[in-house]
Amino acid sequence: MRTEGTGFLRARRPEQKQQRYAAILDAARELALRDGVGAVSLADIAAEVGMHKSALLKYFETREEIFLRLAETEFGEWAAGAIAALSTAGPDPRQVADVLANSVADRPLFCQLLLYSPLTLERNVSLEVVRAFKQAVNESLQQVLPALRRALPALGDEACFDLFAMSGIAAAGLWQAAHPSPQVVALHAEDPHAARYPDFRATLVRFVRTYLTGLLNE
Amino acid sequence: MRTEGTGFLRARRPEQKQQRYAAILDAARELALRDGVGAVSLADIAAEVGMHKSALLKYFETREEIFLRLAETEFGEWAAGAIAALSTAGPDPRQVADVLANSVADRPLFCQLLLYSPLTLERNVSLEVVRAFKQAVNESLQQVLPALRRALPALGDEACFDLFAMSGIAAAGLWQAAHPSPQVVALHAEDPHAARYPDFRATLVRFVRTYLTGLLNE
Fold first, then answer.
1. N or C: which end of chain A has fewer CB within 10 A?
2. Which residues from chain A sit within 8 angstroms of residue B173, using beta carbons?
3. What is the predicted pLDDT for the residue at A193?
4. What are phi and psi of B178, to 5 degrees?
């Protein structure tokens, strides 16, 4: 308990508070990548970063706020990566689809948070935290949109948004299919043909290609 | 306690056990349709059906088994409805897409269970329960497949499976987007243009049309 007390005194200085804030986010990210977002509790994060739960809750409202802040960061970093990759993609739509799908598939935490954000994270935080999250997501999308339009001049704004949104929904769902429960893994060991969509990246690339073909042929 | 004891004695007869089993599933279905699958606990189901949790666990392994059994039923009923609707659909692919999308959109519990099955339900039950569920899903899909192939002769078996799978993943994700948290509802009240995909059925129809166009133009 002595250490915790000393730690808390230290963290009164703004730069030390900032370090703690970042350490909590880092711990949550590491645990989520190892165990899956759904399996990580506030107590797990507190133990990983070496704080009491009560001290941790001076930095974040809830467990869900921690993951929603990680989702903001993931959206921003995904957008930056996608813009860079799209700048040299096209005009072959298949190449643009591959770049877009891979920009998502490269980010396993992002794929999980795309599912959990509407499902649980946006439910267990204040209106202000949701507002900040939605603004950050919107800004990221507004930054990527021109890059996608440049790469695919034939696609309108609404179709570009559909491509982002449905690629995200597909990534969230296909991630679950490619990371089944131990029980399903055991079933697939008995009958390997029963495993559908085991290769997450290849399936997502195939989906985005097909869906983009549909958008371009409507 | 007296009533519970009497009820349990009564339920020793097989037909009464069967009635209890069905009553538990009915209660879970009602609660999930009212509050959402994620919000319904085993205690809620026990209270709704008027049993003790311990008595309920003589019928089902876990809360998750209850919902997985409901998912089996939903898959079977969806398949029967889709087969009937597909028998008069086509050859216009847009008409087939509409029939398929509406067969899913007509079933709000199905849309939720498509999300929760891989996410949580298949994780908290025994191998035997998962095996029975997967077999039931596979049988349902194998029954619908010929009906879809008749309606869309140009589509191969693999593309037909992709159409089912991605329509299901899209339905699961779009359901979440169309049923946001109270916080997100409050944000949308401030700025109605911020609400994306509020009309679940229309958005799913549009997605299935576009994706099918892509499958037919690959």
1. N
2. 115, 168-170, 172-173
3. 81
4. -85, -10
- Given CATH 1.20.1740.10, say whether it is the number of domain A1-60: no
How far CA A218 is from CA of A39, A58, B179, in Å, comes to 41, 52, 28
Residue of B117, B184, B191, B209 best to disrupt the A interface, most CBs of A under 10 A: B184
- B125/A183 CB distance under 8 A: yes
Do B166 and A207 count as a contact with CB atoms less than 8 A apart? yes
Provide the token pair at A127.
């209106």
Q: To the nearest whole number, what is the mean pLDDT of chain B?
A: 93
User: So what's the pLDDT on residue A141?
Assistant: 95
Min distance A14 CA to chain B CA atoms (Å): 30
Which two three-digit tokens encode residue A116?
Answer: 């959990």
CATH architecture of A63-216: Orthogonal Bundle (1.10)
Residue A165 to residues A137, A202, B126, B179, Cα–Cα distance (Å): 12, 19, 35, 16
Q: Is the pLDDT of residue B42 over 80?
A: yes
**A–B interface: beta-carbon pairs under 8 A:** 128
CA angle A94, A100, A101 (to 5 degrees): 85
pTM, entire model: 0.93
Domain ranges within chain B, ordered by starting residue: 1-60, 63-216
Residue environment code for B98-136, b if the CB has 16+ CB neighbours within 10 A, otherwise e: bbbbbbbbebbbbbbbbbbbbbbbbbbbeeebbbbbbeb
How distant is the Cα of B21 from the closest Cα of chain A, in angstroms?
24
pLDDT-derived band at A4, boundaries 50, 70, 90 = very low
Cβ within 8 Å, pair A122-B180: yes
